[in-house]
Design a protein that fits this description.
With 613 residues, this protein is an alpha/beta fold. The protein folds into three domains: 285 residues, FAD/NAD(P)-binding domain, CATH 3.50.50; 128 residues, FAD/NAD(P)-binding domain; 123 residues, no CATH class. It contains 17 helices and 19 strands. Strand 14 and strand 15 form a beta hairpin. Helix 1 runs parallel beside helix 3. The radius of gyration is 25 Å and the shape is globular.
Amino acid sequence: MSRPAPGDRPAPGDRPAPGDRPALVVVGAGPRGTGLLERLAANAPELYGGSGLDIHLVDPHPPGPGRIWRAEQSPLLWMNSHAEDVTMFTDDTVEMAGPVRPGPTLHEWAGLDGSTFAERPVQGAYLRWVYERAVAQLPADVVVHHHARHAVRVDGPPGGRQRVWLQGRERPLLADLVVLTLGHLDAEPDDEQRELSAYAREHGLVHLPPDFTADSDLSRLRPGEPVLVRGLGLAFVDLMALLTEGRGGRYDGDTYVPSGREPVLYVGSRRGVPYHAKIGYDWTGDRPPLPRFFGPAETEALLARPDGFDFRRDVWPLVEKELGFAHYHRLFTAHPERVTGDWAAFEARYATAGPDERAVLVAAAVPDPADRLDLAALDRPLDGIRYGSPEELQEGLRRYVEADLRRRHDPAHSPDLAVFLALLSVYGQLVRLGDIGGWWHGFFSYLASGPPGPRLRQLLALSRAGVVRFLGAGLSVTAEDGVFRARSAGVPDTVVEARTLVEARLPYPTVERTRDPLLRALHADGAAATPDGLLAVDRTDGRVLDRDGRPHPRRFALGPHTDARGSGAFTRPRTGGVAFRQNDATARAVLTFLRAPGESAAPHRPLLEESSR
């Protein structure tokens, strides 16, 4: 809406001027900002009535899809989840104080087959519809204004109105509260990336640092030339699509027909293998009763430790036991011919056994080692494997990908799906613990957030066509003698040289290196960051913490740049969506405060504690 916003009036103070309306500024209007808006609409009838409110959404990109899901991107880029597994609406599995407002999943809204991996512009259209529906459900005296600009700074006293400064605008927006829903952020390069870019400039090479693939300048990658690619996750999958079909190539069944405009992609990573394919079958039978060994009680006990906790020592054993429980529950109940004994006896012993005792128990009850859960082997599948030549490595990696595709589409391996469900359960608890380091998020994505099966079939076709060449595990890249050189553990004596290096991964969202000026300034002004560089927030409602651990009464933050980041971009229906829980708690805190913004700068603690049960 374009009418002048009341929040533009000068003279901020502890309470709005007579006749003025409360104002909320939400910086970031993508999926997280849209989700917050939906929760504001859902909770407003109970918590906010009659006094009017202006909500200012600040984002240079369209509200709903935002930057990542905008319509103006290639339809070759797909969603990474089945259409039936994507929803923006709550259900009765979400632990929250606010009301459930059901709505359609992506596949229901778009009329797609549930197993479809939709094009990203289709998801953008869904998000735009969710945004418009949320706006329509707000009370009549709540007005939403979209400012298609970047927010560059927020200031103001804790006890008074905040000022949000926008790029290219002289006067700030005045706000009683500010919520940062910034989504994924660009980042300044770290020391290694700066050195590689400087080397590339000096020697006339091409270096593409971590970035969102849809925003990268791929025109610099020339046809037929070797390109070193570091990373085999989802950013690589996007890169692969844009440099092959995006340049006129096509698939004829399982054969890739090149256009002649493709570069040759030499790709490797620490693991050396792509993320596991999405599981391609449905659940049947009883689900494992989760959480079992890592639930709210265990999380609270960890948070209550006066000396804190260590992830590997204190948290990982609980995660490992929970994942194993889900795996063996499914194996015993769905595939009893592959175990000895009965589930009740196994479960009783499993519950009390330590790691060494569990290994003995599993060895006795599960005769085939292939039916046992080995998380270390899953995490590093190529450890210790050596190939006699680069061609042997290509064949070995193709066999690995083919086996993964068969397994992930075969219900005989349904314990894998049980482990997936346990991963979602575990993630919901780990979010409550805050910043636990980057290893877990990579491990989770590798097991639970891999590419659609068709993408890996395309990868196999590209490998057979020679457009993709695998480098293997333990990849190292150096800049020397005027080129980039890649080596890996799989074929130790082989060196691949190229004049182009692509870092196929997203920027890490650190507040110190973010390119977002607002977040950088917020941190410089005293907002706390975790050791891994995430913005520290209050677990109950998302208020930004200062370096003494005190929550700011008028500033909130939600999303991947915070230490309360949720799992994945979107929520699967009926999985207790962590992001929904967070959005609801923040929305209720915001509405409670805005009922009378001048009365108190303190949050309504009993309400927030109830909403984070």
